[in-house]
Amino acid sequence: MIELIAQAAPEFNPFWGTEPSPEAIWKIFAAIAVGIVFMFLLMRVPTRSRRSIVMTFTFLSGAFYVVYYLWPEPINRGPNDAPSGFVDAGGFFLQDALPKVADIANVLTYLLLCLGIYSLTRIHLGRVVKKQKDWSFSVVLLIAMVAMIAVGYWDYILKEFNDPDKLLTKAENWGGVNYAYDMLFDGLIQQMDAAMFSMIAFFILSAAYRAFRIRSIEATVMMASAILLMVSLMGAVDYQWSEIIKGWTNDQPGNFLNNFNLSEVAGWVKNNLQIPSIRALEFGVGLGALAMGLRIWLGLERGGVSV
Amino acid sequence: MQYLDTGKWHVIFTLLLVFFILFNIWRAKGKKDMFVRRIPGLNAIDDAIGRATEMGRPVLMVPGLGDLNAISAQAINIFAQVTKTAAQFGTPIRLCCANAAVFTLAQETIRDVYQQQGQIERYDVDSVRFVSDRQFAFAAGVSGMIHREKCAATFFLGEFFAESLIFAETANAVGAIQVAGSTQTVQTPFFIAACDYVLIGDEFYAASAYLTREPVLVGSLVGQDWSKIVVAGLIILGFVTNSVERSQPATQKRVDVDATADTEAYTTWEDVSEPWENGKPVLKRRQDTWLFKQFNPFIEQEDVIVEREQRQPAEAGEGS
Q1: Around Cβ B140, how many Cβ atoms within 10 Å?
Q2: CB distance from B302 to chain A under 8 Å?
Q3: CB-based contact (8 Å) between A228 and chain B?
Q4: Is B21's CB within 8 Å of A294's CB?
Q5: What is the mean pLDDT of residues A169-198?
Q6: Is the pLDDT of residue A240 over 90?
Q7: Contact criterion met (CB below 8 Å) for B129 and B95
Q8: Is the Cβ of A74 closer than 8 Å to some Cβ of chain B?
Q9: Could you give the C-alpha distances from B70 to B73, B216, B260, in angstroms and in order?
C-alpha cells in the first residue's frame, strides 16, 4: 500500500494547474467516496473496536516515522540514480514516501477543518436563531466568515487560473474582488491582528507590576534581576556606572572590579543563570514529549477515554 | 538519519532513553501507590473547580495553538481529568480550540468523560468549541469569552505563544483562578507573572501520572527521571573532558572541506603550523575534542562518493 502511495504519483502533478484528465477526476471522486464510506463505517463501529482500529493506524503511521528516523539516508542521491543495494533502496523508498505520507496528514487536517467550521457555524447560527444574548456579534462573525471564504476563493481563482500573464500582481489591474480581498485581509485582519498584538505591551506592564511586588524572596530575586537587566540596557546609566568602575580600578583592564560593569553582570546572569535554567527545562520537556509520543504510538496512552 | 554526519551515538542514545521509559512502564505494571512528588498546580485543580461551582460560573480550558501532537494530546488528557470533576459537580465547562484536529479529539474525549461519569445529559455539545486558527483572532475570541462569561477558573495548558499573556491577564481581570503550563519555555515567565499556579517544564507531562496514578504513566515518569540522570551525567562528562582537553596544546586541527558539485562536505586534519601564538601555546578548539568527534564523525572523502547506476529518465520519473 505504502509502495503504491510512494511510487505511483509522478513528482509534480499539475492537476490544478492544467486541464485535469477525466481519469484523474474519477480517481479523486472515488477516493473521496471511499473516504466517506470508511469514516461512516468507523463511526458505526462500537467504541471499543474503534479504539483498536485507531491504535493500529497510529502504530503504522508512527512506525513509518520511526523507520524513517533510523534507516540510513541515501548519500549524494542524484535525480536519476538507481539504488546501489538493499539499504540504499530502503533509503530511496523512505525519501520518496515521506511527502506522500505527509500529504495524507494534510488531507486529514483539512477534512477536520471542515468540522471546525461546522462547529463554529452551528454555535453562532443557533445563537442568532434563538436571539440569545449578544447575538448581533454572531451575525458579524457569520457574515465575516462567509465573506472571507467567498472573496478569498474568488480572488485565488482569478489570480491562479485566469491570469496567465500575472497582470494581477500589480494593483492597477485589480478588479472589485481583488480590492475586496485586499481590504478584508490586509486592511482588516492584519490590522486587527496587529492591534491584538500591541495590547501585549500593556498586559506585560500590569503582569510585571503584580509579579515584581516584593511579597516573597522569589519575587524579590525576580525583581532584582529584572531591574539589573533593564538598567544594563540603558546606555546612559551603563556608561555612568562604568565610569565609576574605571575610577575605582584606575582604568586597569585586568582589575577584578571590572566584572561589576552592568553589562558584564547582566551578561553573567543571562549566560550562567537564565540559559542553563531554560536548557534544563527543555531537556525535561523533550524527555516528556518522547515518553508521551512513545505511549501514544504503542497504544499505552489511554488518555481521557480511560478516566 | 544521516549517520555520516551525526554518527551512531544519537540513535543509540535515543534508543537508550526509549528503553528506560519502556522498561519502567513494564516494571510499574501491577504496582500501586508509587510516589510522585507534590505538584501545587495540580492540587489546585479541585479548589478551582469547587470555586467555579460555588460561583455558578464556567471553567475555561485552552489547549494552546499547537497542532494535534503529543503536547495537545497531553493537554486534552489533563482537561479530561478537570472535566471529570466538573461533571460530578455539574459545573459548566468551555474548551476552546485553535486547531480543528485538536477540536475533534477534545470533543470526543470530553463526551467520553461525561458518558463514563454517567452524566451524559449534562454534556453540552457547544462546550467544546473551535474558535479560529489565526493566533490573534483566537486570542480575541477566547478573551471575549472570558469577559462575557466571567469564567471562575481557567486552565491554559499546551503550546502557547504571544497570546499567553493576553489570556492570563484577561482571566486575572475577571478574578479567575488560573492554572497554566506551556511547553514553550519562553512563555513560562509570562505565566509565572500572571497566573496563580504554573506547571513548569516537564511537570506538564507529569500531570496525567500525578492525577490518575496509573502505573503505566507513573512508570513512564520514572523512566523520564532515569533519562534525566543519564543526561545530567553526560553534561558532567562533557564539562570535564572538554575542560581538560581544551587546556591542552593542539598539534592537529580538524577542518571541514567545502562541498563540491558532486560530493558532500568531508573533513580532514591539518597540522598546526604555529604551535605558539603570542607566547602562549595554541589550544585545542571545540571541534578538536573527543566528545565533539563522537557526535560529529570524521568524514573521509571516499565516504561521500557512492557509485550508483543511472535509471532511464522515464523509469526515474515514475519512481520519484
Answers
A1: 20
A2: no
A3: no
A4: yes
A5: 92
A6: yes
A7: yes
A8: yes
A9: 5, 16, 40
